[in-house]
Specification:
With about 375 residues, this protein is α/β, with parallel strands linked by helices. The chain has helices at about 5-35, 55-70, 90-100, 115-125, 145-155, 175-195, 210-215, 230-240, 260-270, 280-305, 310-335, 345-365; strands spanning about 45-55, 75-80, 100-105, 130-135, 140, 160-165, 205-210, 245, 255. The chain folds into two domains: about 5-35 and about 280-365, no CATH class; about 45-260, Spore Coat Polysaccharide Biosynthesis Protein SpsA, Chain A. The protein is built from twelve helices and nine strands. The strands form two sheets. Strands 3-2-1-4-7-6-8 form a seven-stranded mixed beta sheet, with helices on both faces. The chain has a two-stranded antiparallel sheet with strand order 5-9. Its EC number is 2.4.-.-. InterPro entries: Glyco_trans_2-like, Nucleotide-diphossugar_trans. This is Glycosyltransferase.
């Protein structure tokens, strides 16, 4: 191979190394240094928890009482029963008789148009009596009785958007391990950006914002034509450096179950493919270069070592990258209760960047047509 080509590969490898180190130090280190508030203070803010559910009988039966029995003085729970045919209506009626702060909004299938999650959430928001809204899904389990209290406390700072964290339960197996790692990596990215004053997304399983912000920015109108994005697109379009805060105390986590098969996991990811291309340009550039530079860093590492191009330099740069990532991620994974993933970091990180690029490419051509 020509010398100039080898030099070019080495140079580009160094560019990717510097880029990845920049993300680690400039972004992720902020999350590593962040300490959530330990002592819970009374918020005294009326809150409406909103859940959109379609055919979620089993999940509602298990999780809804845990949400309704939260240790918080003033809150209601609004469940939007979105065209369910699994007797969710009977369960919700039964729970309404027991819990007076449960409100149910029912949507029935219409032959002339199909409903979607954004439509269901909009109805739930309109039905909510309180200004401060807290969102989760029917298949999510609060980590503690203080979930509502922890998330709501952030509104006392004047924030209009609160970004929470929703990890997957640890069950073992390759799919579960990678799903948990991918979720942690995604959280590291969006939480770090929020701490830098440039929030670009949130997760609907654990998200809060004000009703005023929703209606003053016309809700989901700007992206109603895109089925997913009720969480990340809304945050991307409405978050500012002054109105967004994060909440990552373990008591504020919302846990959910990961898919157990590759096909189930793929279908889940398929629903969210392509949403990133609707982000603001600066966020698309930041995320695209992170994905590409991370992928090429590992590809060029292998190529350069095989071709024996400056092997000591190449190996040295990888070692610096590895040590920096271990030191920073050690703190983050401890905070996010995922310390067990640290041992798999070298391998999972490679697969993560392959996943980002492959699924990013697929997402360019995929159009999601249903949310359940």
């Amino acid at each position: 191979m020509e010398t100039y080509l080898l030099d070019a590969l080495l140079l580009f490898f160094q560019v990717c190394f510097i880029s990845q180190l920049f993300y680690l130090i400039s972004y992720h280190s902020k999350l590593a240094a962040y300490k959530p508030l330990e002592q819970l203070q009374p918020a005294n803010i009326p809150v409406s928890v909103i859940i959109s559910a379609r055919n979620e009988y089993d999940n509602l039966k298990y999780n809804l009482p845990l949400i309704l029995e939260q240790n918080y003085a003033d809150f209601e729970v609004v469940v939007v029963n979105d065209c369910s045919v699994d007797e969710s209506d009977l369960l919700l009626l039964e729970l309404q008789n027991k819990y007076k702060h449960l409100k149910v909004v029912t949507i029935t299938e219409h032959v002339r148009f199909k409903t979607g999650k954004k439509f269901a959430l909009t109805l739930g928001i309109k039905a909510a009596k309180n200004e401060h809204l807290l969102f989760t899904d029917a298949d999510c389990t609060p980590a503690s009785d203080d979930w509502v209290a922890r998330m709501s406390l952030n509104f006392t700072t004047g924030a209009q958007i609160v970004l929470g964290y929703s990890p997957y339960n640890k069950t073992g197996g390759i799919i579960n391990t990678f799903t948990r790692f991918e979720t942690v990596k995604t959280a590291i990215s969006y939480l770090s950006s929020a701490l830098r004053g440039d929030a670009y997304m949130g997760i609907g399983r654990n998200l809060a914002y004000t009703k005023t912000l929703f209606f003053s920015n016309k809700g989901f109108a700007a992206h109603m034509h895109v089925l997913p994005g009720d969480d990340d697109l809304f945050v991307n379009q409405n978050a500012t450096s002054d109105n967004t805060i994060i909440e990552i105390h373990p008591d504020a986590f919302m846990y959910t179950q990961s898919k157990t098969t590759f096909s189930g996991w793929y279908r889940q990811k398929k629903r969210h493919m392509g949403v990133g291309k609707l982000y603001k340009n600066k966020h698309r550039r930041m995320l695209s270069w992170d994905a590409m530079s991370g992928f090429l860093f590992y590809i060029l590492l292998v190529v350069l070592l095989i071709l024996k191009v400056e092997p000591l330099l190449v190996a040295g740069l990888y070692f610096i990258h590895f040590i920096a990532k271990i030191l920073i991620y050690n703190k983050i994974l401890k905070t996010l209760k995922a310390k067990d993933l640290l041992i798999y970091l070298p391998i999972l990180d490679i697969f993560y960047y392959v996943y980002l690029n492959v699924f990013g490419l697929i997402g360019t051509f995929i159009k999601t047509t249903q949310w359940k």
